[in-house]
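Q: Can someone sanity-check these two? First one:
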Amino acid sequence: MDLNLKSMAERWPSAIVARNEVDRFTGGVISPRSLANLDSLGLGPEGAFRIGRKVAYPVAAFIDWLEGRASLRRAA
């Protein structure tokens, strides 16, 4: 089975993902607070930017980051 996270980007209505929307984007797999913590450690997605008080990520960069962190688990 191949992991294809790019299909999430095809269904997302914008070219960016706001940090407070990452739980909706990922189906609850990543929380905004966890992502904020990873960003503070320098382990978050590349290309993060701020508009006012909001932090956002380009969808393509966010998908690349997710793919880098994801792994398939085999059934026992």
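And here is the second, same format, sequence then tokens:
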Amino acid sequence: MAMANKKKGLLDFLSGKKSEEGKKIFETWYNAMPETDHPEFEASEATLKEELAKIKNRGVVPLKQEERSPVMVYWKAAAVALLVVSAGILLYVKRDLFTKEEITYTEHYVPKGKLLQLSLSDGSQVWLNSDTKFRYPETFGSGDREVYLEGEAFFNVSKDPSRPFRIHSGGKLTTTVLGTSFNVKAYRNDDFNEVAVITGKVSVVHTTSDNRSSEVLLQPGQKAVLVKTQDLLSKETFSDVDHYTSWREGKLIFEDAPVADVISSLQRYYNIEINLSSETLKACRVTATFDPMPLEKVMYLLCFTLNAEYTHAGKKYSISGAGCNPNHP
């Protein structure tokens, strides 16, 4: 009974039934918060309206700076904290407002010619391709699991319905999952960004340069493709899963791919530079599978496909020739 009386007394204090000071305390705290940080109350609509009607009074003016004594600051914090308990309402705010939860990030850069596998604190597995930058928390907090990617990575995300896993990639795509496996390709200099789903379901949201957004929902065998020159996101299907997973074992698979995409992949994987001598060669498309093999063999097979030949000085390779072999488009 004593506790109930204390709760009621506190509510009366903050609602202004017994003191204008109580109303000012709450108003000062509430109005000092940015609009996006205003708390949300998990309660019935009737309860919410009733409590807010008591607490928010349009005639109340926030305290001026000179009126904020140390005692008032103490009461402001104590009253807000106790209001949650006494009203029986769950208050949600940004984590750093009350809990001071700090998240320390780690960043990895995988240089050209290298691959890297990581295990995250939630048990999720990540494979990073060459020339990839990945930023992630050393330990995930109590909220959403958020990571940042520039390059290519394959994710096998541990299921946790209470904490969605979000990948921010390419500056414009946000991929959200609960637990699934998928590949994200978001190199800065590529014409396309892709998110290909192997298992589970994935949401991909694209934010345009003028802050418009669009969303696609993906199931296994579907991929989201962002055409960067058009700032356009679309959904497509695919059947060759190996195309998105085999690079983890050093196998590169291309299916009717523009030669520019093939060269970009080879440059990253072998840490070399490749130049084409003619526009005819640049127009070629390539269908090929390169198992883990020495670079010289890869260059021989590529040139055979392109009806061309190569020369090199150190890590700089030059391909020249008549163009695509009719028997090997």
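A (reply): Looked at the second one. Residues 42 and 90 are 6 Å apart (CA to CA). The chain has nine helices and 20 strands.
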